[in-house]
Amino acid sequence: MTAAVVLINSFEVPAADAEQFIAAWEQTRDYLETQPGYIDTSLHQALAPDAEFQFVNVARWASAEDFTAAIRSPGMREASGGLAGYRPHPALYRAVRS
Question: Tens of pLDDT along 41-86?
Fold first, then answer.
């Protein structure tokens, strides 16, 4: 059995775009949660207004393969279109200690 993976995706979002970004993130989340292997996700906002990354998404997936299939799925481009203007910094991680 493949171990679950964690997506950590930091976004560069101007402060003035916070509400627009959150709405676009929610639309993308709503699509991804219908995909095989999706476990859960949460969006975090920086407390400091000058933080390099105002938003960080943390999502759990059953496997890297499930995540890759989801982001390559036919509906993903439309679902995530609202995020196109915000530079993402995504990477998949696996736990090595707890």
Answer: 999 999 998 899 999 999 999 999 999 999 999 999 999 999 999 9
- Pairing relation of β-strands 5-12 and 87-93? antiparallel
* Burial category of 15 from C-beta neighbours within 10 Å (exposed 0-12, middle 13-18, buried 19 and up): exposed
DSSP the chain: -PPPEEEEEEEE--GGGHHHHHHHHHHHHHHHTTSTTEEEEEEEE-SSTT-S-SEEEEEEES-HHHHHHHHTSTTHHHHTGGGTTSEEEEEEE-----
Report, as an integer, the average pLDDT of 37-43.
98
Tell me how far apart the alpha carbons of residues 70 and 25 are, in angstroms, rounded to a whole number.
Answer: 15
User: What predicted TM-score, i.e. pTM, was given to this entire model?
Assistant: 0.92
Q: Rg of the chain's alpha carbons, rounded to an integer?
A: 14
